[in-house]
């Protein structure tokens, strides 16, 4: 159980075992769960409360001492499917590893895209126009964010107690400064800023103790998500050196999207005259009704009970819908996980999957918001994704599946949810006998910042905390047993 909360899992807690009900199908554990940070495998609670704290390290020794002090409060992924208490995670940016004084050979062992940061990869990520890093909110993209501490909880009370514990490690601590603090969660119905139930459909990971859940498909090799294990190609991916630093770690991408709720609501009203038609159009954009019910299983009307049922709401394929008449080929859900869809440009779906831990912040969705001023209300999503090759995967998704349509024979159509739309952009809804093409789709989520982080194992956090300075260069101590 979490060191941050002494009470047991309460009635409102929604760990995976509670969401699905009954016994989970168990499989042998072949990864070192007790060394992997809990956030890598533990599902976001429902309801959920939490905070992201972005910190700047001004003094290497103080930064390492902070890591050392906080590490005992970071939970492991052991029994991740049962946990319901609050937990804390630590992730470190490339500039943060430098600020903490890691050895040069360790720094050089990280992938180039990670070392230069998300802002420097804007061209590869297709972050143009309003999404360009020059328009990001500080401190994103400046290199000033060194450590990200995130706290997740299923109740407000446990969240506040966890925050107090974490705060004791950095408040008034010379050499470590808070750059940004963002509370998240607690939205009515746990909906995202555009009114959708989200965080459905995570990948199944081999060797993590739980078999594939309904609709997940065969487990994906652990090395696609956690460093030190074979991936889908049969070999482990390169990882940072020394082994104690890289093994059981993963990479994290964070993209902060401002929701343009006024623009979204105006779009629905302009293209659908009735409330029922607007809800169907909203479902076609994503591939699910806003309750979470998939269009494959509820093609003509919403089914909230289906959307709330974790054993059924992801249990489908696209085999009976090859032309996208139920779920448009260009919908957000079908782009991000094509499943068994036949694609014009072939790609191995398994090597492009990501673990998602996105969080919603700010004002809740307002169905009556239609003005430009409503677009500027502080509400949005921290799109958080984890993968052993998060940088390469996100660049592929941004280039091919989000901001392009060729892989689905859709030309230059873009993802209707997170795609950066150009003037005159369209969205196609296949119908019989004639498809419907909607013109003038807008950008509904604008990028306000982003960072790449490395989420070390618990052993690696201890190793970082025990580094010592010698002649201006950090020396490695013996690897912990």
UniProtKB/TrEMBL annotation:
PANTHER family: BLR4509 PROTEIN, DEFERROCHELATASE/PEROXIDASE. Pfam families: DyP_N (PF21105). Residues 88-165 form the DyP dimeric alpha+beta barrel domain. This is Dyp-type peroxidase family. Residues 315-334 are annotated as: Disordered. The keyword ATP-binding does not apply. The lineage of its organism: Bacteria, Bacillati, Actinomycetota, Actinomycetes, Kitasatosporales. It comes from the Bacteria. GO terms for cellular component: cytosol. One of its GO terms (molecular function) is metal ion binding. The keyword Protease does not apply. Keywords: Iron, Metal-binding, Oxidoreductase, Peroxidase. Its cofactor is heme b.
């Amino acid at each position: 159980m979490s060191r941050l909360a002494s009470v047991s899992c309460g009635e409102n807690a929604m760990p995976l075992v509670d969401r699905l009900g009954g016994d989970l199908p168990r499989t042998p554990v072949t990864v070192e769960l007790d060394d992997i940070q809990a956030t890598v495998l533990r599902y976001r609670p429902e309801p959920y409360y939490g905070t992201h704290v972005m910190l700047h390290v001004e003094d290497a020794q103080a930064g390492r001492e902070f890591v050392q002090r906080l590490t005992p409060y970071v939970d492991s992924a052991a029994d991740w499917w049962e946990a319901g208490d609050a937990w804390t995670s630590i992730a470190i940016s490339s500039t943060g590893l430098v600020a903490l004084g890691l050895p040069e050979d360790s720094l050089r062992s990280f992938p180039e895209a990670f070392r230069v940061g998300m802002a420097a990869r804007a061209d590869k990520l297709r972050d143009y126009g309003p999404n360009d890093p020059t328009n990001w909110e500080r401190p994103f993209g400046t290199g000033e964010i060194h450590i990200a501490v995130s706290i997740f909880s299923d109740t407000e009370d446990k969240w506040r107690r966890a925050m107090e514990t974490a705060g004791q490690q950095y408040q008034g601590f010379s050499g470590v400064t808070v750059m940004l603090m963002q509370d998240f969660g607690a939205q009515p119905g746990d909906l995202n800023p555009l009114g959708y139930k989200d965080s459905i459909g995570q990948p199944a990971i081999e060797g993590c103790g739980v078999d594939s859940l309904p609709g997940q498909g065969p487990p994906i090799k652990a090395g696609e998500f956690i460093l030190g294990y074979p991936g889908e190609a049969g070999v482990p991916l390169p990882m940072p050196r020394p082994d104690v630093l890289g093994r059981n770690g993963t990479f994290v991408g964070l993209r902060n999207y401002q929701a343009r709720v006024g623009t979204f609501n105006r779009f629905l009203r302009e293209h659908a005259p009735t409330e029922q038609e607007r809800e169907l159009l909203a479902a076609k954009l994503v591939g699910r009704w806003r309750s979470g019910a998939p269009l494959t299983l509820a093609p003509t009307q919403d089914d909230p009970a289906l959307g709330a049922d974790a054993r059924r709401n992801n249990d489908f394929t696209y085999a009976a819908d090859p032309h996208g008449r139920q779920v448009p080929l260009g919908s957000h859900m079908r782009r991000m996980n094509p499943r068994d869809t036949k694609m014009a440009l072939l790609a191995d779906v398994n090597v492009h999957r990501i673990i998602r831990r996105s969080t919603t912040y700010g004002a809740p969705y307002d169905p009556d918001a239609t003005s430009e001023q409503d677009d500027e209300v502080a509400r949005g999503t921290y799109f958080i994704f984890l993968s052993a090759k998060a940088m390469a995967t996100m660049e592929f998704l941004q280039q091919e599946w989000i901001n392009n349509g060729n892989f689905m024979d859709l030309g230059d159509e873009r993802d209707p949810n997170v795609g950066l739309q150009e003037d005159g952009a369209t969205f196609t809804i296949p119908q019989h006998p004639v498809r419907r093409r909607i013109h003038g789709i807008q950008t509904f989520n604008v990028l306000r910042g982003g960072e790449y982080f490395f989420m070390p194992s618990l052993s690696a956090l201890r190793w970082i905390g025990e580094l010592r300075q010698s002649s201006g260069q950090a020396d490695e101590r013996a690897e912990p047993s």
